[in-house]
Amino acid sequence: MTDALVELHRLTVNFDDRPVVDHVDLRVQRGDIITIIGPNGAGKTTLIKAILGLQPISGGALKIAPGLTIGYVPQHLTLETTLPLSVRRFMLLSGRSHQECMEALTKTGVEHLLHASVHRLSGGEKQRLLLARALARRPDLLVLDEPAQGVDINGQAALYELIRSLRDELNCGVIMISHDLHLVMAATDKVICLNQHVCCSGYPADISHDPAFIETFGRPVAESLAVYHHHHNHSHDLHGDVVSADHDDHTECSHAHH
Ligand SMILES: Nc1ncnc2c1ncn2[C@@H]1O[C@H](COP(=O)(O)OP(=O)(O)OP(=O)(O)O)[C@@H](O)[C@H]1O
């Protein structure tokens, strides 16, 4: 097994003696996309803040690979709207060279907006700009907090597709928070369902049947996601390894969705 970029062992964060993140285990390697889902107040943002070193932990262990570069994409771009700011200037504020900034903008498909005002960008363009700023750091790990907020449904699918192709190109790890359950559950990436503790985790087809998942999101939501369930004749562990198989002549699932 390759070395982990980030490894959490029983990580706990308390606020006023109340565990908001409770004994969470997580391991992220290069190539992984791990999506954290869970209801409001479940501790998702607190968990990624702890990984980013912005939130002190109350217990457990957090191991970060030495020299790890993290690219962070926050939920929103919060800027002083009275100050004029072009995309170019915004990118250069990251401290990276013009060429690195241009490469990153090209990767996220917004290089044509170089001279535009950041205040006039659409929701989807802003998210692509934030992603470009994170990429300019050439990260080993991308951490995204609801990257598709304020983006329409087609734009969301395109953004998730872009994140997947960037993962392939950069061979980085990705941790993201998402509320877009339909998109998350239609994908084939690993999912962690958090509600202070990890309720369930694994691949969508496996966790969507999990009683803890149904309890967390309610039966109507779980049933509405049934459209994405596919015939799955084996299970995966959190690292994607097949842990059981009904047939002995296959090692992968047919991820054909309806
Ligand atoms: N600095 C803080 N001090 C005290 N309580 C906090 C602090 N930050 C977060 N909390 C509380 O911790 C809980 C988890 O918050 P967090 O933002 O991690 O949830 P979340 O899963 O990201 O929620 P959402 O989906 O609504 O964004 C909430 O009850 C929140 O009020």
From TrEMBL:
A Pfam family matched in the record: ABC_tran
SMART domains in the record: AAA
GO biological process, one term: response to zinc ion
Keywords attached to this entry: ATP-binding, Cell membrane, Ion transport, Membrane, Nucleotide-binding, Translocase, Transport, Zinc, Zinc transport
Protein name, as recorded: Zinc ABC transporter, ATP-binding protein
InterPro entries (alphabetical): AAA+_ATPase, ABC_transporter-like_ATP-bd, ABC_transporter-like_CS, Metal_Ion_Import_ABC, P-loop_NTPase
Domain ABC transporter, residue spans: 6-221
SUPFAM superfamilies documented for this protein: P-loop containing nucleoside triphosphate hydrolases
Gene3D superfamilies hit by this protein: P-loop containing nucleotide triphosphate hydrolases
An annotated Gene Ontology molecular function: ATP binding
Domain of life: Bacteria
UniProt-listed PROSITE patterns: ABC_TRANSPORTER_1 (PS00211), ABC_TRANSPORTER_2 (PS50893)
Record organism: Marinobacter algicola DG893
